[in-house]
Design a protein that fits this description.
By secondary structure, the protein is α+β, with helices and mostly antiparallel strands. The chain is built from 23 helices and 13 strands. One of its GO terms (molecular function) is DNA binding.
Length: 603
Amino acid sequence: MATAAVDSAMEVVPALAEEAAPEAAGLCCLVSLPGEVLEYILCRLRELCQSSGKVWKEQFRVRWPSLMKHYSPTDYVNWLEEYKVRQKAGLEARKIVASFSKRFFSEHVPCNGFSDIENLEGPEIFFEDELVCILNMEGRKALTWKYYAKKILYYLRQQKILNNLKAFLQHSDDFESYLEGAVYIDQYCNPLSEISLKDIHAQIDSIVELVCKTLRGINSRHPSLAFKAGGSSMIMEIELQSQVLDAMNYVLYDQLKFKGNRMDYYNALNLYMHQVLIRRTGIPISMSLLYMTVARKLGVPLEPVNFPSHFLLRWCQGAEGANLDIFDYIYIDAFGKGRQLTVKECEYLIGQHVTAALYGVVNVKKVLQRMVGNLLSLGKREGIDQSYQLLRDSLDLYLAMYPDQVQLLLLQARLYFHLGIWPEKVLDILQHIQTLDPGQHGAVGYLVQHTLEHIERKKEDVGVEVKLRSHEKHRDVCYSIGLIMKHKRYGYNCVIYGWDPTCMMGHEWIRNMNVHSLPHGHHQPFYNVLVEDGSCRYAAQENLEYNVEPQEISHPDVGRYFSEFTGTHYIPNAELELRYPEDLESVYETVQNIYSAKKENAE
């Protein structure tokens, strides 16, 4: 029987149809339906359009598809409310990103510069999703927005990963944890990449499947074939364990072509587990973690050995519960295609005798310490990356594990001081060092004094220096910000983001760079340029020339200064244009002249 609501609807529909356009007359057909059918239709429409119904869920999915993975099909969700919260979060995130260029153009974003977005209400995943949307905007536009969205996203994700790592380190050790800890390190150093422990395990499980296929050909009744993925059962018979290792060596090194990276050993990618799986190469510690994880999934209880200069695994050959020594183990070199070594061969591998203690198994924290120590060493070797990002990341990770390591705290303070960033944080670090080790008074006092001077200079900053090309003292400046240039001597491509009428560097820099050997010496315009290799340089005018075949400059700081790449030049953002207000017009004129001449030559 039809409800009162249906009866009312049946009265309203004909009236609406009469007032509407002729094509709307089809509404009258609804009233000819049986009351029960019309009631069902109206109830379904109401259900679909409710806040928890499919209409708003579909609207949410179409607008923000990447967020759907965070919802369970069984959860009750008010999709209308969720839509509103996500939209509000997006507007707030964009508002903050837009403010960053004005606030932090003249300096690195300070350590408290992210507090605005940290204090926003709403799910953090919504803010992150909006930042990712900004990064995925059309490639050559909104460069300044992308630059700051990337910085904010980098910071937010790193803070979350670091908190997860600290919580993880409080847990008791188990062999599943070695891989999990390594993935945290990978995530922290690559926060903009989509890396998850679940995906890493899935890739390793696919390797396990291949090993099982090979193992089936060796022994069709092997107990490992009955193991479920992620199981913790271990095989006790040495012969059965040996069959697993033989199958593993064949799959990893012969079939999948994994190998130790001898050609490019000192590359941070060798320590990131997701890259080890993609590139199928690594160094001893990362290859060992992969090898051990596969083995333990198949029931072979290999253990990590923090051997000097070359990380190894050990494989017990003695009876369970027996009083074992180092000679009761075989040592496996995963870097060397799973080669099995005796104690003597291990010493021969590194060319020195070592004590028995160094053949012992190590816990998760020690393994992670060694991985981060390797990254720290690589970070100190960085040359081109003037932001020292790897060194900064590895210091953060090491100090998360060992927060009272004085020498590393001092290195962190010196690094921030050298980069001219986060002076307030430098003072906090120095105070902590002084508390831990008063003997560091000399080094701490020097840095405190110069950091305070830096803070005072910032307070005295007179503001924006405007450079007008029309000014008499700038008459020799030939090039403009935004132009794509080529260095005549070194051949690198670059974009100009600043200029001086003469060299403004000190006497020592001028002497070291041999500027006096140039025909015009230091009495000529010099240009600040972003170079395609990621470096920033200060180049003499006589060493630069127009690049008649301009290309985008893949420098991480391009967005700090420019809002768009047109295909011929970069357009400065509002902050840079404020400093060089007459350059943009000069750029257009220069580009037009270059391509007019190029066209004439072609004809």
